[in-house]
């Protein structure tokens, strides 16, 4: 497997991200990069991150801090991971798992005050939940209502 790199979004990534394709059964569980980028432009607490492999943009997610994550946690030093996607043509290569394995180091080196990572995964999205748990995220029994039904809220202590 090619190793991946996590980098903050730059304009050079936009065209590839706007061309991402996900099948309908995956797209219902996440925001597409073009929609997520628009929200990042409106909310300074959202920082877009690009997953690259061999200098090719293969994935995307958003790191979210601030007032708008209070429905996940009262912890002011927490960060929510949103809108993770791997372009369909690049799936099955281990990129998402590798990105989640690198994420704690990436966050710690860029956000020193953050001590907890949080994400929500739909009850029906079993492969994603398994991926996050393999990367060290823990289900503490917290449930949140999401746009397509109930979601597990998973935690990772830094």
From TrEMBL:
InterPro entries: Acyl_CoA_acyltransferase (IPR016181), GNAT_dom (IPR000182)
Source organism superkingdom: Bacteria
Entry coiled-coil feature ranges: none
Positions of the N-acetyltransferase domain: 4-158
Protein name, per record: GNAT family N-acetyltransferase
Species the sequence originates in: Fictibacillus barbaricus
